[in-house]
Amino acid sequence: MTETASSGCRIVFDVSGPADAPALLLCHALGGRGEMWAPQIGVFNRRFRVIVPDMRGHGRSGVPEGDYTIDQLGADALAVLDQAGALRAHVCGLSIGGLTAMWLAINAPERVARLAPVCTAARVGEPAVWTDRIQQVRTTGLESIADAAMTRWFTDGFHREHPATVARHHAMVTSSARDGYAGCCAVLRDTDLTPELAKIGADTLMISGRFDPVAPPAAGQTIVDRIPRARLMVLEAAHMPNVECAEEFNATVMGFLE
């Protein structure tokens, strides 16, 4: 475990893999933490130096009060890369992590080698949805939204076949800090990267889940249509293809990065 500071916020991250290997930054989803990438880390760190932070407001990282911004999440990611000594890295991010990954490719292109946004959109949902979510979480806590989150994260079939995995992710959400979750909801409420996507020069693989109700394949296609060197891969999953079809996800990302 390593840590750094960004805008006064403690950001904790883990690093594994060969010290001289290309760096790979993994940015997790809202309501998660770095361990969300458990199906990937032991595979990716054979070929890459894998850097996995807990996003501000989540996991072991600090939980500032108030609304967060995409600029803060992007600056946090850069602080992590700096602390890890990674001048340049491949970046893979899921949901709000994918939004952060795209921000990096737009605003710090010299730091991004290849880009793999997963189950995300240039604008994720409508602002009113996030305004309501913030109010709900601040009023009634994460327990009030965790069941609904699981229906978005995993298909019905995965729920039936892997109840322990679903339960583990449910506990991940309910154990999150309400201020951190709400602060990141404000990022999703306020961010629309659509006008800036054409600035991304990195080779990009957009991964969508066919059954994802949060950021469906159409949202992925919108991203691909605006990034000059991008293609779309659709996996048979909901919002968490890295968990629901981990083997195919791993092979897809490894093939792209190599």
Written overview of the protein:
By secondary structure, this protein is an alpha/beta fold. The chain has one domain (2-257): 3-Layer(aba) Sandwich (Rossmann fold), CATH 3.40.50.1820. The chain has 11 helices and 8 strands. It has helices at 38-44, 70-84, 96-107, 127-140, 143-153, 156-161, 163-174, 178-190, 217-226, 241-244, 246-257, and strands at residues 2-6, 9-16, 23-27, 49-53, 89-94, 112-118, 203-209, 230-235. The protein has an 8-stranded mixed sheet, sandwiched between helices. It is globular. It starts with a strand and ends with a helix.
In short:
45% of the residues lie in helices and 19% in strands.
What descriptive keywords fit this protein?
8 strands; 258 residues; Rossmann fold; 8-stranded mixed beta sheet; globular; alpha/beta
